[in-house]
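Tokens for Solute-binding protein family 5 domain-containing protein. Go.
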Amino acid sequence: MHFQSLMNSNVLHFRRPRRLHRMVRNSILFLMLCVLGATSAQAQLLNYADSGRPEAPGLELLQEEPHDLIFFTEKAGGGWVKTRLLELPRREMPASPSGSLKFSIVGVEQQEFVAKWTDIQNIDFWETRLERETAERIKAGDFVGAYPFLSVLIRDYPARPGMRQLRTEFLWRDAGRRAKNREFGASLAMLEELRRYAPEYKTQTVLTAIGALTDQLMEQLVSDGKLELGQQLLARLEQEYRGQNLSSIKKWNAQFLSMAEDKRDLALAALEAKNYRDARKFSRESIFLKPDIEGGTELVRKVDQIYPLVNVGVLQTATVLDPTRLDNWAARRAGRLLYRVLFEMQGAGPEGGEYEFIFGDTEQSPDRQRFSMFIEPERLPEPLNKVDGFYLADVLAERVQSESPTYFSPWAAAVQAIGLDGPKRIDCILRRPNVLPSALIQVTVDGSWFGGEPGSPTGDYRRDVVEGDVVRYVLKGEPRTELQPREIVEIRTESAAEGVSKLLQGEVDVLDQLFPADAVRLSSNRKVRVVNYPLPSVHMLVPCSDHEYLADKTFRRALVYGTNREDILNGELLESLEVPGCRVLSGPFPAGLEDNDPLGYAYDQSIAPRNYEPRLAKLLMTMTTKQMESEASRKKEKPPELKPIRLAFPPENLSRIACEAIRSQWQLLGLEIELVELPVGRAFPDPGTADIAYVSAAVWEPIIDARRVLGPEGMAGSTDQLVGLGLRRLEESKNWRDARDRLLDLHAIAHHELPVLPLWQLVDSYAYSRELLGVGSDIVSLYQNAEKWRLSQ
């Protein structure tokens, strides 16, 4: 076949009609159509030539449309054409061809050609080319290059006669290459795939290689301290290769048994020396290494019976101990171990929180203007049974006096008089009906209430030693039950993922806070129980300095528009998993976990969160700058400089990940952002050290917490007049309808004025080993039932 392009007339010339003729009678130009936008010469190069062979495209072949190549005999003029896939029986050259072959040239639309079989020397079929490319690359050791060709063959031509051999050769030889590069995991995966796909292929050789590889992989895992992964691998090998005499199984079973026996001996020695902490540690490590080790379970139970101890994995250890703290998770958690609160929140009800008066019982009059407390010392443990009504009345009165360090303005605004009716009854007369007076008096009870030192604990535990990232809380009196933990040990982990690993390995018994995605994955583990806290945390950015731009609400609005909160929440924090209740917020209050959830009584669902609109954010930033320049010019002053913004966050990975994402998005707006990691145990920066802080707040009772978040003495320190008016009107509410309506108004004000920048709410969860009993499933704080914890026997 001989093609010739006549450039001036743009016609296709056939030297001999017998070699190739068109079925369409009229000659229509097609060279310019072969490749869109290409010249005739380029088209000729890509689609046909009158001599030689097409240039090998390499990996780019897979980017081309599937095609066949027809090569013509020298007698017919030579050359080749690139055609659409030919419709031939079994996709092969006929044994004794006769007549003509119809075909379409790639790039030449709506035209059909025909050639005599006697003029065709050979056809290089598409799938044959793929097989040849694959085989050549495998032979050359280019497995990365061979893989895409093999993938296409497996997808489109799985029944080809040579496919099984081609695929097995690829798996076997690539596994060998990876093993030489010490990629033991990948090499093992390929050999096991080979064994599943073609069990007849070098059966004993493959099995021997798997044994050697698993031995090296186990060695690597144990050396790296990844014992859990090693045990999982060993258990899988025992199950899948039962009866196959895999050498590594016997070796590593013996190895784990030896390590477990060493740990058991250490545990026994520690137990004899009455070093119960080490005895517990080594006995658990022993059965972790070999669950069926002789006497292992009995030893663990014996140690737990003598000295019950619970290890708790935490993202932050506490440096401040305050069970009423709004913005500090660690302080709130650990504070509950040491201190009791006058009114402790036990959960959420249809009308706000449900509170327990730790000294007895309460009663509110039908008109909600008298709130009575009844002290019942005969039912209380020490030291709570030592309190009397006179002292408690004084404490309540001090919170009304503006000069007192314990002054609380909402309580002062609510109370008209405090009276005693004997030593066991206190009556609080309220200025107006109050919907939830118990929420106003969440006062920490310390030892000074009972004649002890100020700040001394009133809970069951006291803080003992701090050893780096380990803090021990020791039972300070006689145990309430034989199995009550003598110690609760908090162990700080670098990340939530590390905490999950420690829980699965038995190094900790409880995790106090999980990454949402980890909670979803861990919930399927039968050895662990994952439970959601009933109240979500509200995440926000709180301005905390005199940064002149952050003081401008237009600039704060620009920051909200410039933050892709949906992307950070769903992509970074939830890892694209569906976690009900986690959502972006438009205000500083929780939205509830589902529609019409009473937990969301302060949240106006009609106010949608602001969308991510970076162009609008840039415009608002420009407006802020122009307004400041205009104001400075009017006052004949120098306009303020847009200084770098220091963004502070607690030292745990969820806040760190969120703030790194926020920084990246704000930098796209042209802002200079400095991340400030707070010291361990701190949740809010010291004055002058940061400009805005990432806060995870327990806004569980908005009717009270609104002032703690937004008020001039609260986190935001807002002096905005609209915010102040909204807070005052809220505190004057006479019934729940008023309270809810005014909270919705306050939500709208906060959405407009932005005293804080709302981000999202997260449904927090905790996890614990099923061997730990008494934790509870509807607790607002991890240690709410700590005195009832017990390890199963």
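The chain has 22 helices and 32 strands.
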